[in-house]
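Input structure tokens:
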């Protein structure tokens, strides 16, 4: 299933908003219509529940994603220009059908295309990295990082360490099935949707690390944090903390329709 283009959407709802209506629209209408498009390889969605938020973190004053409730992503088949064009056309058609996300209180904090960088699987998982996103999961552990000098030596050194040290170490954590990393490509504002004013990023400035989970997301999230702290103490930490700003580090739960609304 390996794709060279992925889309992420970070959404939060204002207090008092109708989460059930939003979930029903996304899970029972929007997601199936998108998965039916020939250019969409796969799509999935996760919730950042209150329990997940309680064990989340970020660096310093990074607050732009602190209130995110849901994260959705899609993988696209080539040719990407055609696949994305059809995908955007569906968004416009859905609006004209009266089946768009016309739900008050919805804020889209990030909607963007990313380039998949590399996939990994834990030793106990028999599938390939390309198949990992299709494999059922209990949730994810998400890390969003910003590299202001995104093509500098420090960022390059960090990416080398992440690939060769940190992610292989995390494959030993109980409940972690595998990982994928992504590099920011471009924003994906859609003309039929309202978007919050957000900072524009340069290609490569943001990185996303997804850990695919088999275990309970909150408990596995705690184990990930403890494992990373122990690796840091053992001298296997990142080469320079100054080059990376963590905007969000949080577990996410998979959504079971009807049960989790």
């Amino acid at each position: 299933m390996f794709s060279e283009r992925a889309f992420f959407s970070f959404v939060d709802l204002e207090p008092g908003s109708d989460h059930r209506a939003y979930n029903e629209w996304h899970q029972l209408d929007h997601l199936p219509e998108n998965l039916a498009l020939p250019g969409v390889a796969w799509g999935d969605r996760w919730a950042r529940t209150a329990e997940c938020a309680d064990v989340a973190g970020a660096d310093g004053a990074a607050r732009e994603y602190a209130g995110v409730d849901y994260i959705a992503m899609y993988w696209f088949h080539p040719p990407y220009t055609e696949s994305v064009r059809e995908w955007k056309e569906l968004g416009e058609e859905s609006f004209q059908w009266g089946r768009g996300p016309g739900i008050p209180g919805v804020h889209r904090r990030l909607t963007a295309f990313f380039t998949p960088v590399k996939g990994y699987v834990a030793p106990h998982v028999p599938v390939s990295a390309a198949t990992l996103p299709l494999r059922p999961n209990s949730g994810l552990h998400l890390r969003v990082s910003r590299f202001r000098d995104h093509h500098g030596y420090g960022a390059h050194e960090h990416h080398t360490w992440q690939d060769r040290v940190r992610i292989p170490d995390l494959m030993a954590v109980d409940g972690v099935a595998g990982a994928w990393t992504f590099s920011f490509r471009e924003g994906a504002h859609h003309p039929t949707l309202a978007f919050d004013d957000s900072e524009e990023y340069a290609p490569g400035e943001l990185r996303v690390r997804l850990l695919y989970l088999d275990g309970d997301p909150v408990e596995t999230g705690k184990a990930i944090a403890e494992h990373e702290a122990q690796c840091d103490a053992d001298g296997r930490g990142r080469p320079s903390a100054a080059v990376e700003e963590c905007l969000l580090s949080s577990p996410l739960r998979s959504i079971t329709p009807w049960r989790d609304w």
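The chain has one domain: 6-254. Residues 85 and 179 are 28 Å apart (CA to CA).
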